[in-house]
Amino acid sequence: MTIGRALASTLTAAAVTAGLLTGCSSTVGGEAVSPLYDPFRVGGLPAVDGPSGLRADAPDPVGVVLHTDGGDIDRLALLAVNDVADFWSQHYADALPGDFEPVERLVSYDSNDPSSPRVCGGRTYKLVNAFFCPPLDLMAWDRGVMVPVGQKFFGDMSVVALIAHEYGHAVQRMAGLLEEDTSPLVIEQQADCFAGAHQRWVVEGNSPRFTLDTGDGLNHVLAAALTIRDPLVPEIVAEMLDVAEHGNALDRISAFQLGFINGAQTCAAIDEAEVAQRRGDLPRNLEMSADGKVESVDVTLDESVLAALMDDLDTIFDLPHPPTLSLDPDDCGSPQPGAPVAYCPDDNTVGVDLPALQEFATPASEYRNLVLLQGDNTAISALTSRYVLAVQRERGVSLDTAEAALRTACLTGFAQQAMAERVPGRQLVLSAGDVDEAVAGLLVNGIAASNVTGATVPAGFTRIVAYRSGLLGDLELCYSRFG
């Protein structure tokens, strides 16, 4: 988030390990109306925690994996291949043209091993990846780093989703969806969408090998999607290095959600126009200064930054009685342990535990890029969510319901949409990476999608849907869609 010239800094991406997916907010009860925006449903399915991962009675894997070491990682990956093939054998004809042909050439390699085999004409030593090779109709995965680290941080189902994504590339070619000029962005977004369609099939209990719940299990799958986001670079650098755009974290999660909610037939319709519409006018690349340097990527949250945010929110919402900011813990204590922000409607005060909020914005060390984002906008979006409770108070709507939690996420997204515009007098401007930091917060702690009591809704999936509704919608949409 670019801070105005007087403050001369930016907010951008940083990292925190996926072990923090257990949030500090409780969940809330209540009633809801629309199945898609129901606080207690995920794409129309009940939002529940339960078992996720390999079934105890899963059948043995079928197929030959070249260069396998015969270990558990390759067994899991092969079971995932079998499962995705089962899904497509049942549903391909209903969604796509052509005939389904299972991918049978499978290769395992160890990116830590200098003698790791060449695959699809390239070296696999230090290639931390999984991929589909169209010329050879071959799928390969790294059993040394990519798959085991993903499994460690995000669970078995993140590995299954990874395989489902790569299988999606094979399906694209079977269906003739790709032209010579189809961009990598569209190619990757379609594959993310196909992975979402398969994961719903698992959630619905159709897989003989895996289970997935719509609460914590699905949260971990979405968290894994954050880790394969595009790196943040200036546009001119991306052009010079010929870096193919695949999508930021919100792009990839929203494509996955399209497939999960609407099925595989929706994925085939993804094109440049659809991606552009889904992205809106949000910033994509880092900015460069007049002297050719990339702008600073961090800012320390202090009283001046928080005051600037409150001033900007006053301008955006133009409330007759805007809330006041207090840094005194005794003025407006948090209703939830561990939450660094709170809103007290009785005296219309937004309370902040500044040291705790600064922890929310402090970068943590990365481990092979398999991390969740944490940065300044993880904290800024949480604080903004408490301000928009004051916006709802002015409107006279409930503040302590499940609908209020999602309405809060939506209005937070709306505020951040406004902050993406460079308006004279505004001090904070949304920049590349900031939205993904907010999305990470929605998965990790849910504060930006919590009501006045600090209670959130069960599924990170639904929290993100609500936030994106405001990010790409308008103020009234938040009230009509979420009660």
Can you give a write-up of this model?
This protein has a four-stranded mixed β-sheet. The protein has helices at residues 72-95, 146-154, 156-174, 184-203, 216-227, 235-241, 249-262, 264-267, 272-279, 303-317, 354-360, 376-395, 402-419, 434-444, 460-471, 475-481, and strands at 2-3, 15-16, 41-42, 45-46, 53-54, 65-66, 105-109, 130-133, 138-142, 210-211, 324-326, 341-344, 349-352, 372-373, 428-429. Helix 12 (376-395) crosses helix 14 (434-444). The protein is an alpha/beta fold and 483 residues long. 43% of the residues lie in helices and 9% in strands. Strand 3 and strand 4 form a beta hairpin. The chain has two domains: 2-39 and 296-481, no CATH class; 51-212 and 249-279. Mean pLDDT is 86; it is low at 2-23, 233-242 and 365-371.
Characteristic terms for this protein:
single chain; 483 residues; alpha/beta; 2 domains; 3-stranded mixed sheet; 15 strands; disordered N terminus
